[in-house]
Here is the input.
Amino acid sequence: MFKRNLFCTLALLAAMDAALAQSAAPRMKSGKPDLNGIWQVVNEANWNLEAHNASQGAVETLGAIGAVAPGPGVVDGGKIPYLPAALAQRQQNFAERRTEDPEAKCFMPGVPRATYLPYPFQIVQSDSDLMFVYQFAGAVRSIAMKNQGEAPVDSWMGWSNGHWDGNTLVVEVTGLNANWLDRSGNYATEARKVTERYTLADKDHILYEATIEDPGVFSRPWTIRMPLYRRVEANARLMDFRCVPFAEEMMYGELRKPGTAGAKQGE
Amino acid sequence: MSMQSASTRVALATALLLAIGAGSSGAADKYKVPRTSWGDPVIQGFYNNNTDVPFERARELGDKAFYTEQEYAASKQPRPQPPPQRAGGSGGVPNAADVHYDTGEFGLDPDQSEMVKSLATSIITQPANGRLPPLTREAQQRSDAARAAGQARQYDSAQDRPLAERCVLWPHEGPPLRPVGYNSHVQITQSPGYVVFETEMIHDARIIPITDQRPDFGGLTRWQGNSWGHWQGDTLVIETTGINEASTPRGSNVGMGPDAKVVEKITRTGPKTILYEFSVTDPGLWDVSWGGQFPMELTEGPMFEYACHEGNYGIANTLRGAREEEKTKARQGQ
Here is the structure.
């Protein structure tokens, strides 16, 4: 599995090198890579970071619409190195995924999950600052390129310290609340540190890597890799996905006044 | 957010007053606004817009738009206060509700936060009396009907609670943006072709494309409308249409219609200040446009994450209380 993933990564890099020759990566006037744009993954990582076959979804009444899409996995080495007790927690999460997945509850997704949710996000890069705005739940985070330090308080999107390593934006994220990493119950705690690397391969592709350290959950740091694709449509833009109205009936429906119909509000 | 020194604040306030008195274009003449590397005026940064200026002017002030320094000082003198009203309970017995709404204890009283001083008597400056124009008769009837219907089912379900309580949208986020009393911070970020406004509460980022002509938004609405901007000299002009009708403007229980339009103007007036101006037009609600302005003051970041929905115990507890009350009444045969 490791060799296969490594081969895929090398192949991806080779393909990106080839593309680079045709389409140079844009740069800011400062000379730094210009990451501005609307980006999105094209993969099944949000269903399960590990390689997985198609399977019945958590809501059978949705039929094939709710089925789990198969994916070859994005984890270096294939498997997430859980400690035994943590793996048991992951299995429990999986069993309760219909109602306990923070995505179902419209909670902010944290890092790295925000990157590979099936929704676009926009990088807003100025001469000195970087902001990431995610369509899902209106999550947003600023990257501290200066005035760096420790996370002042834990939060859902964490505290991001960024720096340039050559042409790669490296973002070290700490101060994250405990959160799930996908719809299969993979998770990490508030003790985790996520080190992200954004490498602009050409004008329309970023190679994304994230290394996750969480000693109470994993036996060693582990890494995911995937390309990010620029949304090139002329009318591409982040749309409204304030998902609270879509989660309310699941979260609070049991407290609805008996005999009242489900209200329809929001879009 | 970190605090700035009192002397700095006084100097900034003076600059702001000059800016407001002169209007945005006049202010720009007196201050050379720095440029981004791509040539746009720099407005980005972390801003505070906390103010003690009321949104609407006190009726007795008429068309008086500004206090003198002496009048301002007098307006800040403590006034005789009525006995404190308990939020809950009866017979003067305090309960949990009193604790919840003791804003001073939790640093939520506006006076506990850094204030951007202004001698303005209201944020609204148009009409000249500084007050919201009345709704049209037809709009008032719709608003009254919506309020009555809403009150009748206000505790039926989560979806029947106010948008802010549900953490869907807070009314101060706009457009138009307006000071909120606490967590009164805005982060503005610029990139080539975009300006982003993020309000601390409730972490909503409006991404505004900067372009010469209105983009095609596909005929869709958004909770905060479809915004686009362009520069007029040193002033960023943002036009917004297509605001979701569930998002109701101040003074109305019904939303704005398809012909509604909000125009915002943002002008950097000094090294640490910007002036925010706005106007609102909706012939479906008002016979006249209305608008106003307020200053925002640069401050230091970071801006903390305001995770509203993720910690929203209020909705469940409110509904739980309503269901318990119904059971109690049923047991009592009411």
Summary: Residues 6-67+104-331 of chain B form one domain. Strands of chain B lie at 45-48, 124-126, 185-191, 194-199, 204-209, 226-232, 235-241, 261-270, 273-281, 290-299. Chain B touches chain A through 53 residues (CB under 8 Å). Helices of chain B lie at 6-30, 69-75, 96-100, 137-152, 313-331.
